[in-house]
Amino acid sequence: MSIENPTKVLKDELRERLLKPDVISGSEILLRCLLLEGVECVFGYPGGAVLYIYDAMHGNPDFHHLLTRHEQGAIHAADGYARTTGQVGVCIATSGPGATNLVTGIATAFMDSVPLVVITGNVATSLIGTDAFQEADITGITMPITKHNYLVRDVKDLPRVIHEAFHIANTGRKGPVLIDIPKDVSAHMAEFKPADAKVNIRGYNPTTDPNKKQVDKILSAIEQAERPVILAGGGIVYADASAELLEFVNKTRIPVTTTLLGLGGFPSGHELWMGMPGMHGTYTANMAIQNCDLLISIGARFDDRVTMKLEGFAPKAKIAHIDVDPAEIGKNVPTDIPCVGDVKYVLQYANTKAKAANSQAWIEEIQKNKTEVPLRYKDSDEELKPQWVIELLNETTKGDAIVTTDVGQHQMWTAQYYKFNRPRSFVTSGGLGTMGFGFPSAIGAQMGNPDTLVISINGDGGMQMCSQELAICAINKIPVKIVVINNQVLGMVRQWQEIIYENRYSHIDLAGSPDFVKLAEAYGVKGLRASNKEDARRAWEEAMATDGPVLVEFVVRKHENVYPMVTQGKTIGEMLMGDEE
Q1: pLDDT tens column, 487-521
Q2: pTM here?
Q3: Residue 254 pLDDT > 80
Q4: What is the spatial distance between Cα 416 and Cα 562, in angstroms, rounded to a whole number?
Q5: CATH second-level architecture of 386-555?
Q6: CATH no., domain 212-372
Q7: Which of 274, 492, 565, 575 is catalytic?
């Protein structure tokens, strides 16, 4: 064994062992193929249709599986793992209800372009279509929310299918791929023949290299513009193009706004960063979009929460749209300069020719807006404000953490007040807005980044959708720091009912929720609580000083709202600023 690089030698030895042409079961073929794809951890929950697969795991020292407490916890954990590592996340569940419990997580990943390989068991091939016990047509159910899916009927197809699934999931516009394996296929014996390294799938050939003439048109438009804006989305993060974007901005001197999923893709400390746009975006970002003469969208899909009323979105701007998925270009916003390609490759080429825009006066106007109309809230020494809690987390970590959120007011306050300076440091359900996502995604993020501080920020509503996963943090000593922003209500729904539905509050009161400290302790996790600033600082310091998982409940003001806010039917220039509060 080489002393210089023993890890690589061990991996080579493992690979050589995995490639042996043994006659093995479909289940063992599956595990070998996953290991050959470099899978480090699979998140799952067993059941009847996958028992051969779980039997193959028994005593396998090379295969790492994490047992969650719910299938939805497994897929959200795989999602968090994928978003923070850039690798394909993998989860497994049994047939019927096990598989259907994954559907929300598959849709979450599909909407946010997250690469997952989802493995489900099914009834034996002879029983498919007979309404057998725990049978569900999971390939039919998930067809609209996967990039592709497979029903494997022949054990000999497994190596090819698995290799193709990883390729599809992690190329082009990334997303989930499902592999459904009937129970008899997982039991059948066959000689293991690994798939060819090169994948050749008829009809699947994503465009990654851009048409350089289209990039040149964008560069020409920049030279002619006086008020340009870059809208950077999650595609910057997923393409690992943050360095290229920073270089492009420094060369062109164009102000940048980053979408919810784009946060961290451009450093928040940069002088040209304007914050997040849209429904709860900053005044500076929204007004810049409304007044710009050139809007360059890079890896963003013009989601309705960014554009709000489409007819009044960026009314003065020429629109350039760079995206790896041609279906997104022109889908929501008419595009003047389309450019299909991997945003990393687009920016690499653009940086060879990019020149500074004539934007100094525009930059000065934007800086004035940042100074005069910053994000703000009315602080209190009597009540704990949720914005202050997020500022406390940011201050104590200096942004050096991976932060996951659930969905709701706390999600928006985190996006507004936590400063993300590096990619893959923010994990949230953007497109689907899935409550229950935040905590299990943090578990996956921690598994993929064992030496990094991971903070899971949740509301008291979303935390109750996934609290059972506290067990695996305690059992496996997964040191996630769990924050519960407890306002005793479904906060975002309450805010809408207050502002849009004229204070007609309907079924939003979460009175009767558990004592979160006792709940954490019941699972073997340290629990702390704070309802004022002094206690909040003390509790958070204790949590940070604790090696294992900790839950900290911050009891905050019930009627606090997220501002700015753009209500539906309004343009992003028509913001409620919350000044009266």
Answers
A1: 999 999 999 999 999 999 999 999 899 999 999 99
A2: 0.96
A3: yes
A4: 9
A5: 3-Layer(aba) Sandwich (3.40)
A6: 3.40.50.1220
A7: 492
